[in-house]
Design a protein that fits this description.
177 residues; alpha+beta; seven-stranded mixed beta sheet; 4 helices; 25% helix; acyltransferase; transferase
């Protein structure tokens, strides 16, 4: 049985992360404009984007990753008393097709959440195509709660054309936060 290791991604991992997401991420539900995704992952180099990846015990190519950044982009969803605080956005999540269905996405998402908690981040946001059942399940497993679904035809040209925003409030319930 292969042992899996989750670790923080670094500059040396950027090319492999790009290869993984462009080979195993495309589906009718994902919005992956190449230039934007590459620029996003390149920002791992300066630390403005962080990512956790999973790889087999022999190292080598990653089997999956979750990338995230600190932001104020979701301030409208923030509780009034934390509206000005930095929060996090989970940007990309992908698992190699051969490793799909084994819970790696949920494990990676959980690790990203733990690392953000260690940085003092209370509120974490993520979004998905409304009809992406696999992403919805992974997000629920990690404790994310749906906040809003809205028309987003530019990013979501397929199916319902809608985006669902979800949130995890660390140590707080959505009702209280």
């Amino acid at each position: 049985m292969v042992e899996l290791a989750i670790r923080q991604a670094g500059e040396r991992d950027i090319d492999a992360l790009c290869a993984l997401i462009f080979e195993h991420g495309p589906n009718p539900w994902n919005h992956l404009p190449e230039a934007e995704v590459r620029a996003h992952l390149q920002a791992i180099e300066d630390g403005s984007v962080q990512a956790v990846l999973v790889e087999g015990d022999s190292g080598g190519e990653p089997l999956g990753f979750v990338s995230y950044r600190l932001t104020r982009d979701f301030a409208r969803y923030q509780p009034e008393d934390r509206r000005e605080q930095l929060h996090a956005y989970i940007c990309e999540a992908v698992v190699h097709r051969a490793a799909a269905g084994q819970g790696l996405g949920a494990r990676l998402l959980g690790e990203a959440v733990r690392r953000l908690a260690g940085q003092g981040v209370a509120d974490i946001y993520i979004d998905r195509h409304e009809q992406n059942a696999a992403s919805a399940g992974m997000m629920r497993k990690a404790g994310f709660v749906e906040l809003e679904t809205f028309a987003d035809p530019t990013r979501r040209p397929n199916g319902s054309g809608r985006t669902t925003v979800c949130c995890l409030r660390q140590g707080l319930s959505i009702a209280n936060g």
